[in-house]
Amino acid sequence: QTRAFDTGFVNGYQTLDVISALCFGAIITHTLKQRGIHHPRGIFTHSTAAAFIAAAGLAVIYICYLSMGSHSPVRGATNGMQVMSAYVETVFGVYGRVLLAAIITLACLVTAIGLTTGTARYFNQTTGASYGLLVTLSLMVSAALAVLGLNSLTAMAVPVLCAIYPAALVVVALGILRKWTEVPTNLYQLLFYSALAVGIMSLFVKS
Fold first, then answer.
1. Which letter, b or e, does each residue of 74-98 get, where b requires 16 or more Cβ atoms within 10 Å of its Cβ?
2. Rounded Cα–Cα distance for residues 40 and 18 (Å)
3. Is 195 exposed, middle or buried (0-12, 13-18, 19+ CB in 10 A)?
4. What pLDDT does 60 receive?
5. Is 130 left (phi over 0), alpha (psi -120 to 50) or beta?
6. CA 181, chain centre distance (Å)
7. pLDDT below 50 — which residues of the chain?
8. Are the C-beta atoms of 73 and 90 separated by less than 8 Å?
9. Of the candidates 150, 180, 171, which has an alpha carbon nearest to the alpha carbon of residue 14?
10. pLDDT on residue 140
11. pLDDT value of residue 193
12. DSSP string, 75-119
């Protein structure tokens, strides 16, 4: 009620949208090149179209989230899943949670596949380790972490995300800026490491 923008902005880190976008951007570019689109302008045009489609879909989803939060029968929920679970059970009855589980599974499956393959491909190219082994290890670690539950995962992830997200936002902003003007490498590095330092220091300021 007192710092809605700040709280919402930082809580937005938990969606991992920017982090996953950096991985998906590489995947989209790689896929376009496999389909014979190699010219930078063609890659930019098709990537922009994909981005607008994703943005429109996400806008609809988050508007629905806002509506669910404002009309939820739950008060004092500790995470958004409790809010959504109670809402769909109220609206759709006993089958509401089954419907919610199916929707979340399908939605998260896309992100899980994209991040798993993107991570495995990156470490395969940088370390030479087996791609199949890296995918298997990634899935095993993810499955182990998932057992901890949403609240425990959030408690673990938030400090890390608060530290690295400012740097990730700088990378995205500079990536857009470099389309129109040249950004010297030294300046790029200075801004990146400065943002990373600010993110890390914010953890100690909060504590």
1. eeeeeebeebbbbbbbeeeeeebee
2. 22
3. buried
4. 92
5. beta
6. 27
7. 207
8. yes
9. 150
10. 92
11. 93
12. SS-SSHHHHHHHHHHHHHGGGHHHHHHHHHHHHHHHHHHHHHHHH
Compute CA 158 distance to the chain's CA centroid, rounded to the nearest angstrom: 13
Cβ atoms of 168 and 198 closer than 8 Å: no
The one-letter amino acid at 55: A
2: three-class secondary structure by DSSP: coil
Integer-rounded Cα Rg, in Å, for the chain is 20
Q: What secondary structure does DSSP assign to 132-158, as a single string?
A: HHHHHHHHHHHHHHHTT-HHHHHHHHH
Q: How many other CB atoms are found less than 10 A from the CB of residue 192?
A: 16
Q: DSSP assignment, residue 13? A: G
The confidence score (pLDDT) of residue 1 equals: 67
Both tokens of residue 121?
């491909």
Side chain identity at residue 96, one-letter code? G
In this structure, what token pair is assigned to residue 105? 């599974």
Between CA 166 and CA 19 the distance in angstroms is: 11
Of residues 20, 25, 41, the one with CA closest to residue 179: 41
